[in-house]
Amino acid sequence: MMDARKDRLGEHAAEHALPWAIAALGPVPDHPLDRLDWQRRAASIGAWRELSGYDHPAEPIGPEPAAAAPDLRAAWHEAFAALRPVDGPDVRGMPDGTLLHLRDTYPIETAWAPQWVGDELRQVRAGAWHTRLAGLRASVDAQVAQRHGHHDQAARKHALAGSYQVLHDAYRQRETVFAAVMADRTDWEQATRQQRHLAVAADAELRRRHPGQQFPPLRSAEPEPVTPAQRDELTLTAGEPAGEMGQWIKDLAAAHRTFASQLADRQSLTIPSQDPDYGDLGPAFPAWTGPATDAILQPPKPEIAPSPQILQRATDRDADYEAAD
């Protein structure tokens, strides 16, 4: 059933020339066999997009999913392999030894990834928003009760508003940590994107060359995702003390403070030259610039004719120059 669904996705992409498919695979071929291969590759990309909910109209697959979603990661790897070599690294001419080496860099590149806390960041932001609104409502209720002479009720509402303010501040503290870690995660993804894509492409090429050989799947060495017990700590209740941040959040804050130096060390690495009198050959890990998806042959740019007023002004200017001569 899933294979039939994938086939329909590929056929739909070919029939309607979807922008993301054209960007990834080029124009739909006219030859039937080439068209079938194009549809097969588009089907893998389309299946990933449908499974993940990724809906960018022109970018085919987007960033690699976190290690916490192994099914999505496997679908992304299949979609990425379908991009070769139109929109991905071309490793077809590399020997097996180089491919094996590139493949082995995958756990190295993922080992220093900051932990994925995107869901937790969304949770504490929602908590901060709700506690702020609840605190405002409690403050207004306290003012109304005070005006009507209900002093006991006003005191309770004032106390409740103060409790909500404490919770709001606690949520904001956690939000600051999670937001910093996710910003580090973005920097890590950009810094390692080229190397990780090469590793995935090398793995796909090895499997294509040696279909009978069983290669273990690529496994990420990223930190384990947040546990349900840790996530439960992020739910704060009004009227109860917020408590200190859990040790795992403090560890995240400490990791954030050391990540900048790790990234700087990586970016400072250069490729030495064989000639000691010659400078280095450039950065060992150049910044990812992204694939160039524009066609080599571009249509001529449309010619924009000047208006009659501009032409007349140019004629008058030339006449003035001739009169001056």
Overview of the structural elements:
The protein is an all-alpha fold and 325 residues long. The protein is built from ten helices and no strands. The protein has helices spanning 2-16, 19-25, 32-52, 70-83, 96-111, 118-147, 151-209, 228-232, 247-268, 308-324. Helix 4 (70-83) crosses helix 7, helix 5 (96-111) runs antiparallel to helix 7 and helix 7 packs across helix 9 (247-268). The longest helix is centred in the middle third of the chain and has 59 residues, at 151-209. It is extended. The N and C termini lie far apart (84 Å). The model is unreliable at 290-298 (pLDDT under 50).
Mean pLDDT: 82
Query: What is the terminal separation in angstroms?
Result: 84 Å
The shape, in one word, is extended
Instruction: Find the structural class using helix and strand composition.
Output: mainly alpha
The major pleated sheet works out as: none
| Gyration radius, rounded | 29 Å
> How much beta, percentage-wise?
under 5%
Write the H/E string, N to C. HHHHHHHHHH
Number of helices: 10
